[in-house]
Design goal:
The chain is α/β, with parallel strands linked by helices. It has two domains: about 250 residues, Aspartate Aminotransferase, domain 2, CATH 3.40.640.10; about 140 residues, Aspartate Aminotransferase, domain 1. The protein has 14 helices and twelve strands. The strands form two sheets. Strands 1-7-6-5-4-2-3 form a seven-stranded mixed beta sheet, sandwiched between helices. Bound molecules: pyridoxal-5'-phosphate (PLP).
Length: about 400
């Protein structure tokens, strides 16, 4: 993408992201295939008993068993690692497997975790319910204010965990400020970077230690396979993550890795197109009668617009908005849509609408919803790859239908 004259070397680290995502990490077999091969195999054959022994002693590099490693999965890991500029990456079966493995691989009974309370429902379960069951104390805070992170610190605090932008309110956490505070106190910062995607935000560059993804979302990007990834340092991998994944088994299947690998090739153009449409729709929605509020990271009226500009290179493809008339109006709006689909997923080529209070955020209850600013009229829109004018026409008609009720 750069227009400056540059010399191309064989080192993928010197390539632009668009090039890394097409060619990075390729392991060609003896057949010299153009497209990456799908290695659907559980195990690997050794040439001799001696080689098997050497492989298990880590003296002979190579694969042993697909729970530990597989060529197709390795290609996916290497490609996303390059993009993120991380030392290492490990693929997992789902985004939640990535979140759980990243936290439980290094936390132990007696430790304390601080997390921003605005987060994906299942992440909240891991922090709020699962961690305490294993003796890991937790504190949930409003992560927007650095003072709250400071105040929550205890001598045994070992992890800071947050997502930014958060689901569904698009609240932001200052990655650099929180990571700097964490470093001062020997705390590991884990960031769930799903909403921003690796194209629009690089938490590691802002000081985070570990980044997790639900590859289910924009990496596949076409609503097919579940997957996740953890990006971290060699040290974190060797000290914690490697054995955890190897021995407990939240590994990514080769088939899903192959789908994700091909998804990465088109990630930049998809994110760019979807973000442009989202910016267009956010502005259009803000002008519609019956829409009382629009939250979009690329708009100047986002409550943390300055921070958004500091740590994100684009507004992303998620929009939250509120309709007048609460749940009834929000339901009428959803039911009137022709192109946008009602689903709780996101990051698809198909535009998707969700009513968080009755779906993804139903279980946390009205009090927690009020605390997070999730009102009964709030809707979350994941913008797809359809024509922006078709989407606008669909939304305009649906907002009109919501008002007419
Ligand atoms: C979807 C999602 C997850 C969980 O990912 P799965 O692949 O569904 O397990 C975690 N965090 C965020 C922010 C998500 O959007």
């Amino acid at each position: 993408m750069t227009t400056d004259k540059k010399t191309i070397s064989d080192d993928p680290a010197s390539w632009s992201p668009e090039t890394q995502l097409v060619h990075g990490g390729v392991l060609r077999s003896a057949f010299g295939e153009t497209s990456e091969a799908l290695f659907l195999t559980q195990g690997f054959v050794y040439k001799s008993a001696e080689q098997a022994e050497a492989r298990f002693k880590n003296e002979d590099p190579g694969f042993q068993y697909s729970r530990f490693g597989n060529p197709t999965v390795s290609m996916f890991e290497e490609r996303i690692r390059l993009l993120e500029g991380a030392e290492v990456a490990r693929a997992t079966a789902t985004g939640m497997a990535a979140v759980t493995a990243s936290l439980l691989s290094f936390l132990k009974a007696g430790d304390h975790i601080v997390a921003a309370r605005a987060m994906f429902g299942s992440c909240r379960y891991v922090v709020e319910t699962l961690c305490p069951r294993f003796g890991i104390a937790m504190t949930l805070i409003d992560g927007r204010d650095i003072g709250n992170w400071k105040a929550a610190l205890r001598p045994n605090t070992k992890a800071f965990f947050f997502e930014t932008p958060a689901n569904p309110t698009l609240d932001l956490v200052d990655i650099a400020a929180v990571s700097a505070l964490a470093k001062e106190h020997g705390v590991t910062t884990v960031v769930d970077n799903v909403f921003a995607t690796p194209m629009l935000q690089r938490p590691l560059a802002h000081g985070a230690d570990v980044v997790v993804y639900s590859a289910t979302k924009h990496v596949d990007g076409q609503g097919r396979c579940l997957g996740g990834a953890v990006l971290c340092t060699e040290k974190f991998l060797t000290d914690h993550l490697q054995d955890f994944i190897r021995q407990t088994g939240p590994s990514m299947s080769p088939f899903n890795a192959w789908v994700m690998l091909k998804g990465l090739e088109t990630l930049p153009i998809r994110v760019k197109a979807q973000s442009a449409t989202a910016a267009f729709l956010a502005d259009a929605l803000a002008d519609l009668k019956g829409v009382s509020r629009v939250i979009y990271c690329g708009r100047d009226d986002h409550p943390q617009a300055t921070l958004a500009r500091k740590q994100m290179t684009g507004g992303g493809q998620m929009i939250a908005f509120e309709v007048e008339g609460g749940k009834e109006a929000a339901f009428r709006l959803q039911n009137a849509l022709r192109i946008v689909k009602i689903s709780n997923n996101l990051g698809d080529t198909k535009s998707i609408i969700t009513h968080p209070p009755t779906t993804t955020h139903y279980r946390i209850g009205p009090e927690a919803r009020a605390e997070l600013g999730i009102t009964d009229g709030m809707l979350r829109l994941s913008v797809g790859l359809e024509d922006q004018n078709d989407l606008l026409a669909d939304l305009e008609a649906a907002v009109a239908a919501a008002r007419a009720g």
